[in-house]
Amino acid sequence: MKNDSTRRRTPGLRREEVAALSGISLAWYTNLEQGRPIRVSEQVLESLSRTLKLDKDEKSYLFLLANQWLPSDSVLEQKENGDTISSALQLILDELHPCPAYIIGNRWNIAAWNEMAAEVFGYSYDMNEFERNIIWRMFTRDDYRKLFVNWEYMASGLLGQFRSFYAKYTDDPWYNELVTQLLATSSEFQEWWPRHEVFSIPEGNKEMNHPKLGNLKMDYTNLLLAEEKNMFLTIFTPQPNTGTKERLTLFSNKVT
What we know:
Pfam families: HTH_31, MLTR_LBD
Oligomer: single chain
Shape: elongated
InterPro entries: Cro/C1-type_HTH, Lambda_DNA-bd_dom_sf, MLTR_LBD
Number of helices: 13
Domain MmyB-like transcription regulator ligand binding: 86-249
Structural class: alpha+beta
Number of domains: 2
Order of helices and strands: HHHHHHEEHHHHHHEEEH
Protein name: Transcriptional regulator with XRE-family HTH domain
């Protein structure tokens, strides 16, 4: 039998083939394999993921090793399907009652909420896409200016958080359309947007004067969902000794 010296001893792609298919140099890919301190861009990691045909978990692990935030594939996915959550997540929201809680996606659209959040913030299932957006609601609704004590502080802080997300999705035309509409609609947004202020505030507090529930003082926490890395769960908990818990509980008992 003829000895085929070109036959591979192990299956799979050679190092130079991986580099070529991923559009990177062999030397650079070798340095990456050897764990040398090189800068790895999101585009390179995406290319390697496609070349190596990584599944979702393997791709997540690759980005984790490279100290990179795994980008959501939802820019295209959201245009087709919108933000969706599992029935298990909705159950968690409902069980948090009477604490208001909701989930937002990477566009800061409200994907799901519980009954108390609907009452406190005025959410309903007939909202259009802009009306589901937290930034749009904050800057365009007159009732929000009355609802939030120290509205300017709340709105400017929320805008700083939103900009940190906006920077990751500048190629998404939906984001650009939202900003364009807000610039034309809100004088405060028009004034504050050019400041380029960025905030990362995973927790804080809000005080509200609700027309039905009265004065509410609540702390809030934002939790990144492990399986949906473009989505956050926001939970509002009543501050002690403010009467907020009692008012929320009383209202909850009336509607259940």
